[in-house]
Specification:
The complex is a heterotrimer. Chain A is an alpha/beta fold. Chain A has two domains: 98 residues, STAS domain (Transcription Regulator spoIIAA, 2-Layer Sandwich); 213 residues, no CATH class. Chain A has 14 helices and four strands. Chain C has three domains: 66 residues, no CATH class; 148 residues, no CATH class; 52 residues. The relative contact order of chain C is 0.06. The chains are: A alpha/beta, B alpha+beta, C alpha+beta. At the B-C interface, strand 3, helix 1, helix 5 and strand 7 of B face helix 1, strand 1, helix 2, strand 2 and strand 3 of C. Strand 3 of chain B pairs parallel with strand 1 of chain C.
C-alpha cells in the first residue's frame, strides 16, 4: 500500500503537526518509516507538538505501534510533546505497555564459549551466503540451527558447523579407539602366531582387518554412540518442548529437510574422518607388534601391509564408512522424531538411536561382505 | 477425535465467539491438549469439521490451511522457543516468512513485541539464558508476532509438581 | 500475571483467546466462555461462563472440578520380571564363564618343581607340556637364567607345574602323590628331565621337557630346601623315567641318533663300496677272472661228487662203516 494512503501530514496551528492515519495498516504492507515525520518536523520549524487523527483508520496492527514507538523516540529526542488523544484506545494502551518497562541493563552474558571468536565472522558470512531469495536453504539452515547443540554464542550455523562437530571433533575419540583396537589385534595375533614362528604376519592380519572392515566399523559404532544419540536427543528434546510443533503451526516446513542436510553432511565427513584412521592403524599395528615381540620389527613390518593391501581395500573401507555414516544419521534423526513426550522418552530415543544405528551397521557390514565377495573385491 | 480406533472424544460441538476468552477445561487425561492440537491442525479429526469463520479448516488444502494458520498464534507450554535462536530471531522468523519487511524493521517489531510482554532489552538473549516465566512471555510475544486474530494457549500456569517445589516468577 | 498480559493484549488488539488449562485460577480470572471435557463420558458435559458453571453446575463432575484442583500424577512402570530375568541371566553367564575358562583350574592342585638345565633350552616355551612316557602331567611355568658372578657357568632353572590329579599312586592320597620327599627318592633312582621336540613341522615348536642335569652338585637341596612348604623343591639328577631302555624302538627320537656319526660312517661305507665296484679296480678284476677259471672245474667236481654219492647208496646195504674208497681218493685229490 502506498504510503500516501496511510499517512499524511497537516499543520494544525503553528506549533502542532497533525499526523493523519488512514487506510488499513498491516504488517504485511510494510512499515512507513518515522523518517517521514522527521522530514516534516525539520521542514517546519518551531514544532512543539504532534497530534494524531485516526478517524480514517480502518484497521491497524503492530505496524502502527512500531511506527509510533519510533516516532515517540524521535519526539523525546527533540523534546516535542506527543499528544496521544487521537489514537485508538488499544493503541494507547499498547504504547503504554511498550514503554512501561525501562530498558534493562544488559547483564553479564554467560561465559564465552569456544565458538565466540568465530561468531562475528561466521555469522555474517552465513547470512550472506543464504540470501533472502533462497527460500529453501534458509529454512534448511534454520532447522540445522535449531537442531544443533547450542553453546550460547553460536550465530547462524549451517552445514560447516555440523561437519566440524560430527567430523573434526570426533577425530580424537575415533583415533584413540581405532588405535587401541589395532594394538589389541596386534598383541593377540602375535601371541598366537608366535607359536608357529609366524609373527611377521601380524602386520598383514591387523592391516587387512582394520583397513577393510574394522576401521569403518569402529568409526561407525563410535559415531552411532556419539552423534546418532546426539541427533536423537536433540530432536527428541525439540519434540518434547514442542519446538517442532511450533515450526509446524507457523507453517514452516517439516524437519525432513534438516534431516536430509544433516545426513549428507554427516556421511561426507564421516568418510573423510575414516580415511585418516587408516594411517593411525598402520602406526598402531606396527607399534603393537614391536612391543610384543622381542625382535625389532624393522622396516620390513611396516612395508608388509602395503604389499598386500591395495587401493581397492582402501576405497572399499572408505565407502563402507560413508554408508555407515548415513545409516547412523538416519537412525538418529528417525528415533528423534519418533520420540515420546517426556524426558525419559528422550533418553529412550537416544538409546534406541544407538541400537538402531549399530544394528544397521552390522547388517550393512554383512551385506557388504557378501557383495564384495561376489564382486571379487 | 480418535487415535486409530480408540475414540478419545466424541460429539464435540462448540462455537468460539469473537473476543471470547474461551477456556477448554477438564481433568487430566480428558483430551484437552489433543483437542487443541486438532484445532491448530497438528492432528486430524477422525470425523467432523473445524471452521474458522467461514473457512472450512479441515477440508482446506495445505496452502489455504497455512493462510488460516497465519491468522492464529499458538503459545505452547513453556514457550517452545527455538533454542538456538535469540528471542529476536524467534519472533523475527515468522515475520521474515510472511512479510516483506526488511531486517531493520523486523528487528524493530520484534523489540516492540518483546517490550509489550515486558522483555524489553532481551532481544539478543537465548532462551536458555532466561527464566521459565520469561520464556513463556517470549513465547507469547512470538505467538503475537503476526497480530493473530486467535491466540491459542496451553496451561498458563504450570501444573504443580508434587515432588519438587518450583518457583515461577512471571 | 501472564493472564493479565493476555487480557491486555486481547483488549488492545481485539483478538480471541483460546486457553487449554485446568488451572482454576486462570479459568475464573480470565475466562468468559468455556467447555468442559469429561474423561469418562468422553464428551463435552458443560459449557458457558465458568463463573456461571461454578454457581450452577450442570453435573457433579463439573462441580467437583471447579471446586477442587487436580494435580498430575506421574506413573512409573517398573517391571520386576525384566529385572529378575536380567539378574538371573547374568548369573548364569558368570557360571558358564567360570566353567569354560576355569575348566577345573580353580580346583586344580598343583605342585611346582625346579629343574636345572646346563645346556641350551632353545625352543622351550612357557606353557610347554611336561610329559612322562607321553602322558601330559603338567606344564612349564617359568624359565629363568641363573648366572654366577665371576664364572662362566650359567644355569637355567625351569619351573614346572605338575597337576596332582594326573598322577595316581596306589595307596597314597593324591596330594601326597608328588610330595617332595617321594620325588627325591625318584630322583635318586634316576629321575630326570629331558627336552624333546614335539613336532618337526616348525622347529620352534619344541614342547616336551625333560631334565638332564649332569652335575651332581645340584643334588643338594641346600639352596632351596627351605621352601618345601610353599611350593618349591629341588630336583636333582639323574633320570626321570626308569628303567629306560635307551634303544627301545618306539621311543627312539631323532636327536637321540647321532646323525653326524651316522652320516660319516655311511659315507665311508659307500666310498669303500664305490672303490670296490669301480670298474678299474684290479682286485675285482682278478677275483672275477679266477672265479671264471674255477667255474668249469667246480662243475666237474660237483658232478663227480654226485656219482660217488649215488654209488655209496648201493654200498650202504653191504657195508656200513668206512668211507667208500673212491670218495676217499677224491677227497684227497682236492
Amino acid at each position: 500500500m502506498a504510503e500516501q494512503d496511510q499517512i499524511s501530514f497537516q499543520r494544525g496551528d503553528d506549533t502542532t503537526l497533525l499526523v493523519r492515519f488512514s487506510g488499513a495498516w498491516r504488517l504485511r504492507g510494510g512499515l512507513p518509516s518515522a523518517s517521514l515525520v522527521d522530514r516534516e518536523l525539520q521542514s517546519a520549524a518551531q514544532v512543539r507538538g504532534v497530534a494524531f487523527d485516526t478517524k480514517e483508520l480502518i484497521s491497524w496492527d503492530s505496524s502502527v505501534l512500531a511506527f509510533l514507538v519510533e516516532l515517540s523516540e524521535l519526539c523525546r529526542q527533540r523534546g516535542i510533546n506527543m499528544d496521544r488523544a487521537g489514537l485508538p484506545a488499544g493503541v494507547r494502551r499498547l504504547l503504554h505497555l511498550a514503554e512501561a518497562v525501562p530498558e534493562k541493563k544488559r547483564a553479564q552474558r554467560r561465559g564465552r564459549s569456544i565458538f565466540s571468536p568465530t561468531r562475528g565472522r561466521f555469522g555474517h558470512r552465513r547470512r550472506r551466503l543464504f540470501g533472502r531469495d533462497a527460500q529453501v536453504p534458509r529454512r534448511d539452515e534454520r532447522y540445522l540451527c535449531s537442531a544443533l547443540p547450542h553453546e550460547g554464542a553460536l550465530p547462524a550455523c549451517g552445514s560447516f558447523l555440523l561437519i566440524q562437530q560430527c567430523g573434526a571433533q570426533a577425530l580424537p575419540i575415533v583415533t584413540l579407539i581405532s588405535f587401541l583396537v589395532g594394538v589389541i589385534l596386534a598383541f593377540v595375533g602375535a601371541v598366537q602366531l608366535k607359536q608357529f614362528g609366524a609373527q611377521i604376519y601380524v602386520a598383514d592380519l591387523v592391516g587387512i582387518a582394520i583397513v577393510r572392515e574394522m576401521g569403518a566399523m569402529m568409526t561407525g559404532i563410535i559415531m552411532a554412540g556419539r552423534t546418532g544419540a546426539a541427533f536423537a536427543a536433540q530432536l527428541g528434546t525439540m519434540k518434547v518442548t514442542q519446538e517442532i510443533d511450533a515450526f509446524t503451526t507457523l507453517g514452516l516446513l517439516a524437519s525432513g529437510i534438516f534431516s536430509a542436510a544433516a545426513r549428507d553432511r554427516f556421511g561426507f565427513d564421516d568418510a573423510s574422518a575414516v580415511s585418516l584412521r587408516r594411517f593411525r592403524r598402520c602406526a598402531g599395528r606396527g607399534h603393537g607388534r614391536h612391543r610384543e615381540c622381542s625382535i625389532s620389527p624393522g622396516p620390513r613390518t611396516f612395508a608388509r601391509p602395503s604389499m598386500r593391501l591395495g587401493l581397492t581395500d582402501l576405497f572399499g573401507g572408505v565407502f563402507k564408512s560413508a554408508v555407515y555414516g548415513v545409516l547412523v544419521a538416519l537412525s538418529g534423526c528417525l528415533r528423534g522424531i519418533q520420540c515420546g513426550n517426556s524426558s525419559s522418552a528422550v533418553g529412550d530415543a537416544a538409546t534406541s538411536a544407538v541400537v538402531t544405528g549399530i544394528v544397521a551397521i552390522v547388517a550393512a557390514c554383512g551385506i557388504f561382505a557378501v557383495v564384495f565377495y561376489v564382486l571379487g573385491i | 477425535m480418535a487415535y486409530g480406533s480408540f475414540v478419545l472424544m466424541r460429539d464435540l460441538n462448540f462455537t468460539i465467539n469473537d473476543g471470547d476468552v474461551f477456556i477448554i477445561m477438564g481433568g487430566s487425561g480428558s483430551g484437552k491438549s489433543t483437542l487443541l492440537r486438532h484445532l491448530i491442525g497438528l492432528n486430524e479429526p477422525a470425523q467432523g469439521e473445524i471452521f474458522y469463520r467461514a473457512d472450512n479448516f479441515t477440508k482446506a488444502d495445505p496452502a489455504k490451511r497455512q493462510e488460516i494458520l497465519r491468522r492464529t498464534g499458538v503459545l505452547f507450554q513453556s514457550g517452545a522457543l527455538w533454542s538456538s535462536m535469540t528471542l529476536a530471531e524467534n519472533i523475527g522468523l515468522a515475520l521474515e516468512e510472511y512479510t516483506d519487511l526488511n531486517p531493520h524493521e523486523i528487528r524493530e517489531i520484534a523489540s516492540l513485541k518483546l517490550a509489550l510482554v515486558g522483555l524489553k532489552g532481551f532481544e539478543d538473549y537465548y532462551p536458555s539464558e532466561i527464566s521459565g516465566g520469561m520464556q513463556k512471555r517470549a513465547g507469547l510475544s512470538r505467538a503475537m508476532a503476526l497480530d493473530p486474530e486467535i491466540l491459542f494457549s496451553t496451561n498458563l500456569r504450570p501444573a504443580s509438581i508434587p515432588l519438587a517445589h518450583v518457583c515461577w516468577t512471571i | 500475571m501472564l493472564d493479565d498480559l493476555i487480557l491486555d493484549l486481547r483488549d488492545s488488539l481485539g483478538a480471541t483467546v483460546v486457553v487449554v488449562t485446568h488451572e482454576l485460577a486462570s479459568i475464573f480470572t480470565i475466562g468468559n466462555n468455556s467447555v468442559f471435557l469429561d474423561a469418562e463420558t468422553r464428551t463435552i458435559t458443560a459449557s458457558g461462563d465458568p463463573k456461571e458453571l461454578l454457581a450452577h453446575p450442570p453435573n457433579p463432575t463439573v462441580h467437583r472440578f471447579l471446586t477442587r484442583g487436580k494435580g498430575n500424577k506421574y506413573e512409573h512402570k517398573v517391571s520386576p520380571t525384566l529385572i529378575g530375568a536380567f539378574v538371573v541371566g547374568a548369573l548364569a553367564l558368570l557360571i558358564v564363564a567360570v566353567i569354560a575358562f576355569g575348566s577345573g583350574q580353580l580346583f586344580r592342585k598343583t605342585q611346582e618343581f625346579i629343574l636345572y638345565f646346563d645346556g641350551s633350552v632353545n625352543g622351550l616355551r612357557i606353557g610347554a607340556p611336561v610329559k612322562v612316557k607321553g602322558v601330559e602331567i603338567g606344564s612349564v611355568k617359568d624359565i629363568k637364567l641363573e648366572t654366577e658372578l665371576g664364572s662362566q657357568i650359567h644355569k637355567i632353572p625351569v619351573i614346572i607345574e605338575i597337576d596332582l590329579k594326573k598322577v595316581i599312586r596306589r595307596g597314597v592320597a593324591p596330594e601326597k602323590a608328588m610330595d617332595p620327599n617321594t620325588i627325591r627318592e625318584f630322583v635318586k633312582q634316576g629321575l630326570h628331565g629331558q627336552l624333546q621336540t614335539e613336532s618337526l613341522v616348525t622347529r620352534s615348536a619344541l614342547r616336551g621337557t625333560r631334565l638332564v642335569s649332569r652335575n651332581p652338585a645340584h643334588a643338594s637341596s641346600s639352596r632351596r630346601a627351605t621352601i618345601f612348604n610353599t611350593r618349591r623343591s629341588q630336583l636333582s639328577p639323574p633320570s626321570w623315567n626308569r628303567p629306560r631302555r635307551p634303544l627301545s624302538g618306539s621311543s627312539r627320537r631323532l636327536d637321540d641318533i647321532d646323525l653326524k656319526r651316522l652320516i660319516d660312517s655311511l659315507t665311508k661305507t659307500s666310498d669303500g663300496v664305490g672303490q670296490l665296484v669301480s670298474v678299474n679296480s684290479p682286485t675285482l678284476k682278478s677275483i672275477l677272472q679266477s672265479v671264471d677259471q674255477a667255474m668249469p672245474q667246480l662243475r666237474g667236481a660237483i658232478s663227480r661228487l654226485s656219482e660217488v654219492g649215488s654209488y655209496s647208496k648201493h654200498q650202504r646195504h653191504k657195508r656200513v662203516s668206512g668211507p667208500p674208497p673212491d670218495l676217499d681218493r677224491c677227497a684227497e685229490r682236492y
